[in-house]
Amino acid sequence: MAGNFTNLSSFNEAPRLFDGRGNNAFHPAWGATGTPLIWSVARPSPRGANLSELLPAARLVSNDLFSQPLPTSAADFGATQTSLNLLFIYFGQFVTSDLVYVETNASEAFPTFLPPDDWARPYLTALPFFRSRHAVVDGRRAPINSNTAFLDAEQIYGNTAERAAALRTFSGGRLKDSPRHGLPFNSAHSNSCGCPVTNPRGLDPSALRFGGGAAANSNLGVYAFHVVFLREHNRQCEALQLLYPSWGDEQLYQRARTRVVALYQHVVMHDFLPKLVGPLRAYSGYDATVDPSIDTFFATAAFRYGHSALAARLKLSGPDGVDEYAPLRATMFTPIDDELLEPALRGLMQSRAQKADLQMVDDLRGFLYSDKGLPGGDMAVDDVQRGRDHDLPLYNEAREAYGLDAVESFEELISDPATRRRMAELFGTISQLDAYVGMLAEQPVPGVMLGRLSSRAIVEQFLRVRDGDRFWFENANADGPELSPEELADVRRSTLGDVIARNTNLSFAEAASPFLLSASECAADGSARSYVIDLDSSPSRRVQWELQGEQIVFTVTLPDDSWIGIGFGATDGAMQGADIMTVHLAGASDAYGGCESDGAVAHAFVCDRSAATWEYQSVPVPLDTDLGGTSDLALLGVQLVDGIAVVQFRRAVGAADPYDKSLDRTVLATFAFGDGGFSYHYDRFAKLNLDLTGNAAAEASSRTERLRLLHAAFLTLAWGFMVPASILVARYGHHTSWFVGAHVALNLFAWVITWLMYFTAREFVVRRNASTHANVGVALLSWSTAHMLYTILGKLLKRNAKRLAARVRAVVYQVPWGVIHRFSGRLLVVGGAVQVFLGAEAYKRVTGEDYIAVAYIWYGVLAALVLGVEMYRRFAIASAEVFILAKTGKRPVFPLSRQWDWHLFLSHVWSTGQDQMAVVKRRLVQLLPGWKFFLDVDNLDDVSRLEAHIDRSASVLFFISAGYFRSANCLREVRRATSTGKNCILLHEIDQNKGGLTLTEAQQECPSDLQESVFHGRQLIPWHRLSAYQMLSLRLVAESALAKSPHAGARLTYKSEISLSAIRAQRLSISLFVSERNAGASEFIDELHSVSKGLTRAESLASCDAFLLYLSRQTFTDSNADELADEVRSVRKVNARIFMVHENDSDRGGCPFANFFQTTPKDLIDGGLFHSLASPVFPTPHRELSLALAIKSLNDKVKLPVLMRTTSSFSHPALERHRENSRDRALSPIRKLHLPSLPAIPRARIVQRWTGGESAHENV
């Protein structure tokens, strides 16, 4: 109902009041809340004080008459036959919650005591019962109805202004809902009015739902209708807001409410009541003399028919054809999951309702609101006892009051001898029969569900509800909110199926006839190819068919002077373009020329028609012969008995002419019927998808099975193998050169396969959100896609951060990309494991094949593998080296005093420092056993307590990287540490490609008021990623942290430390040739000589062990560049060794190694000058270590065979191999680094890898 309607501003918007008052201008209280139930027919005289003593106890009536065993198999489910489904019964309960709610008085207890031999006696002695809250009218009790008497959808909108306001969002006219668009939970926010919510089980109130009525949680079926109409209201608001953008919240709310109430009234009158009691007389307008108030007999007896029509189990039908069953007792007033909405609706539409008779399932009759399988309340007792509490007339009195003849005997009422006998034993004579019992014992009126007494009472009540409502949607003279002509027409065209389909994931075909069983559920004989459909819930209107080879035999039952039409393959979802067959029982007539006729037996006609050229509501639909086709129906026979005819005819499965539809596949079938001559059916129709031959079902089943197997294989491969493997690679292979590529490839392939899983699932899963497995699958797909996009975005932003605006760059630096990536990946692994188990469970339900144990074994193997690797790592860590005191050789023990919880607080900015801080903490934990380090990822529970954690730390380390001084939390930590005099340690990220910055840039970023306290007098410790230099940085950090310990000022060492003293102790004899044209080389050889006296300066190239090439900012750029290049060429020509040193100290002319690819002559680069790595030399405090490693590297170079020092050009294959092996051994002082042969790598790639302020050695 969202078309381009007439401008609604001209229509009255005065809303009906929530409490119903003022609906009737002359009698404002008629139909309002809080008014007594009335007697719309003659009220019986008082029974007398002792009459109740003459009636049998309500529990005896329940046990002897209403007992029905719980079904023990699916075949027993809903054993008593009717063509209506359970959704019809629950809709009746939904309507009841709109019309009637009689509260009880807790001070008037009237328990029902159980007989001594009662089956529940070991657990219960009495059933609680409280009399109804009442008023005194004419000296007699009159129960009070807390609801309005109008069909005003108060179960959706509430019947008080306070409850109605609590249900609203006050934004766009919408009602509050849950995250999955169900009813909101009963929280203080949702239920802001503190309105009552029925909770007979005493559950946590916040677990229940809050709706317009107190009983919204009564069961899953009623809750489903609450959700459907809530969604319809919000959908109407969205449609109106698009049409009228200027409307405010109140106008949108009231107009949407008007539309929904009108739609609801139409559904009750035209979809529901005709199937329950038959069609009502036509509406003739509002009658102010009609009191719509609820009748006592209607509320207490007639409209309680549904209690006996409920089945013992609630079917939950998944979109993949998997059905589950929940006991009825488990679905009543319990927490409801919105995920079950579609399965519940689908299951209720597929489940047969029981008859409204003297049988009630034990879930209601013996286990009402019970827990743990123990006996509970008895609905039959409540129904019988409530009738006596409300002073209902006895059965025959009620019949006479409603204008029906009295029943003379039990034999006239009941055909079953055993039931007659039990009834006579209980009540003695029929004059003492309770009205509720007698009403249910009646045989149903032909064509409807109920007997004459209950039908008469219900019809009388709903006519008064309709005719006495000034705001009825069809009242053209209403003073209230009218509907425009377009809106009114749209309401009349709509059905409950339309409302369900557009507010759930059920298709329009699934919901086409929501109250009637589908063909497969109406199977006549259990055969897959023989079906029966009852139209209008009457056995006198029935369509059956059976496949016989290539023919389909149809058997149509219909009353005299009526017709039934069957259409196949409509193009508009109704009749347009359909291949139509009509059956007429119309007496002698010339109107059916061209149709198959039986002659004069019953004047039956079978017509082959086509709506290919048919126009809406035009009659008659043309015959195939009128359009140039043929009549392809063969009449087989007709039987006429007591005005009911059975007509049998056949047609071919295939199409015999252009106007026929082939029926060998699933086809949309439309059923319509009417009385008298052939006329437009209006709302007397039903539609559903049918597979008449079973071929489509077989093919679909085979295809579905193949897709299901493929889906399972994809799930196992992607989430059972690839994703866990990618995490293991990331965790245990990060030190290798291939782990990034493997990690990315595994995740990428898993992501692609997940999309393939989604598309295969869509093929065999009809609707989304139908099961936990489906929901988790969609969530995994969405999350993995977001994970991929987030990772790519982070890489791009960090790589191009310097090109971004300052504010954007600051945000980029603040985002903890790595932490979020790791956390997201771990969530995906857990979600994938859950999905594998859910998939195995779903596969078992569908196929019966159990792979759950295999899943457990697989994940057990993975867990064992991870556990083994972790144990090995921990053993390796335990045997790793630690810091010791250089003086004593013992570990530096640092007991914390009471004022401290942590030895060292690690302060960093997440965006550029998180990864390295994790490294720092991990290494320090290994190197300083027993020390405690605070890192926010591991230890921060509340960001507001940062200062407190600073106070509880002995020392504070500032990891200074890009964005550190722009972080509000980091500045909080800096200010607290400096203001309280903490021992502050500065660790400096120097790699500008990884968030590093220079000292000058760090000082510029630091607020001016903090520069003095942060940088003055403090050592700035550079942070390196190479193990040897990293160990020195960590040693300096640890030594600084000792300032607050008993070992303050002590020097630390470790087993693998390379020291100058060890170099000096070696007896080296190495001579280096230094070119005068190599700026800085002479100073550097002097520096080396001061470290090791065995290093001397050679006078000529011929007498040296190696040629020193000192790489600095001036190399190949100063005035001696050409001469130096010539010397290098000469050295390389004679195959002399070249020992390259890369200066990183900017004060000594240091520069990034990438510069040399711009300044070095091209022939030297192409000739492989930089195939050997240069030894990096860093400034203090890493200067000495750099010199020691440089000397060690030089010593390795000169340990080459004498043959390598020749100046001859002699060559031999064995010699060449030896040269390569020797060069590989001399590549690096760090033996763990292995580089591929560089000539095969494009130069552009080399330049990208050899960047930054450190040497090629470091960056590789």
Automatic annotation (TrEMBL):
GO BP annotation list: response to oxidative stress
Domain of life from the UniProt record: Eukaryota
Residues binding heme b: 307
Bilayer-crossing regions: 709-730, 737-758, 778-798, 851-869
GO MF term set: heme binding; metal ion binding; peroxidase activity
Pfam families the UniProt entry points to: An_peroxidase (PF03098)
Record keywords, A-Z: Electron transport, Glycoprotein, Heme, Iron, Membrane, Metal-binding, Secreted, Transmembrane, Transmembrane helix, Transport
Primary residence: membrane
InterPro entries: Cyt_b561/ferric_Rdtase_TM, DOH_DOMON, DOMON_domain, Haem_peroxidase_animal, Haem_peroxidase_sf, Haem_peroxidase_sf_animal, Toll_tir_struct_dom_sf
DOMON domain mapped to chain residues: 539-676
Places the protein is found: Membrane; Secreted
One Gene Ontology CC term in the entry: membrane
PROSITE patterns: DOMON, PEROXIDASE_3
Name under which the protein is recorded: DOMON domain-containing protein
Organism: Prymnesium parvum
